[in-house]
Structures are given as C-alpha cells and as structure tokens.
Fold this sequence. Notes:
The chain is mainly alpha-helical. The protein has one domain. Helix content is 79%, strand content 0%. It is built from 10 helices and no strands. It has helices at residues 2-13, 23-34, 40-54, 57-64, 69-72, 77-109, 117-140, 147-174, 180-185, 188-218. Helix 6 packs antiparallel against helix 10 (188-218). The two termini are 25 Å apart. The relative contact order is 0.15.
Amino acid sequence: MRKLQFMKIDILRAGGNKWLFLLFPLLAGFILLYEKEAQPLFAVLYSMFGAIIFSSTPFCLERRSNCGFLGMLPAKNGEQIAGHYLFSLLLTIYDLTAALLVITVSRIFRPISFPDTTLFLLIVGFVLLVIGIQNMVLSLVPAESSTNMLTLIRMVPGFAFYYCALSLANAVKKNPSFFSDIMKLITLPNCIIFFAVSLLLFFVLMEVSCRAAARRDAA
Length: 219
C-alpha cells in the first residue's frame, strides 16, 4: 500500500530526530529517579506530551520540501497525509514503549509500580484523539500559512493536554469525594471501549483528511 510506503518515507526523513523523539521519556525517567514524589503515570503523561508535539513532524517537513522529492512521487496528496497519520500512530507507540521501559528501569532503584491499566488506556485514548484532530487541522491549513501559525498548531494541543491532565489529577487528589461519581465510571471495560472508540475515530479523522486533500487536488 502506498500509505505504508509514505509512512516509511516519513520515518526516513525524520530519522535525524529519532533521539529527539526520546527526549521526553528520558527526561521523565530522570525525574522519576530523582523526584521521590513523582509517580509512574507522570512518565506516561510526559512522554505523550512529547508524542503530541513531534507527531506532526511529517507535516512540517512536507511544507519545507513541497516541491522536492515527495512532489515527484506518483501518488495523491491524500495518500501522503495517510502516511503522516500512520507515522503519528507509530511515534505514539514508540514513546509509550520508551515510557514503559523507563518505568521498568526506575523500578530497579525505586519501589514503584506500573501505571494503572485503566488510566493508561484513558490517557492513550485521549492522546489519539488530540493527535488525530491536530493532524486534520494541519492537513487543512493552507500551504502558504505562516510558520508561527504552524508552530501554534503543533505546540498548543500538547501543552493543553499536559496541563489539563496534571490539573485534573491534582484536583482529584485534593478533593476525591467531589469526583467520586466520575471515578466510578473509570473502569477497565469502559476504558477499553473508550480506547477502541478513540482508535477508530483516529482512523476516521485520517480518512476525512485524505478525502479533503483529494478534493483539494481535484479542484
């Protein structure tokens, strides 16, 4: 499939940033080791913060070389966008794996446990939705848009996700009785369903972006 081929091209083009993609998981590991109050779930949140920011890398690289190699390939723009989405999904898995490895290593030095499965699925589900919406916006933004606008689209969702997640976690910790009814809904079956729906919506957003790009090419 050409979509997978474009994902591979995105991986090759972003290869120079592969160590940068590990920056957030490694920083999370450092904080886990030296900050005694830091919880394992923080490593997941911080890694996903980085994944949201870096997941849009192919869209930015595409704009820098719009008339270069990619523009010469015999494919529709929608297939390139699908490749960008698949790259984002792969990067999310990559950072999640790195976060779990960091937690595993930290367990050697600190008596910590792995993140609760329900909260883990809940976080990943929200991340997929944020990345899907962010990619759709980037795919619809005109090519002549300013660099500042693109930077805002890349950075704001990640910071908003991280800040809201930490604020909500602190609010629940300070006043658990206020959120008791909501917490009752956060069960493993519900979180599995939420994760599955989020993954499905991610691919729906990918399809919508691809069709929008195809219509733009045909116009």
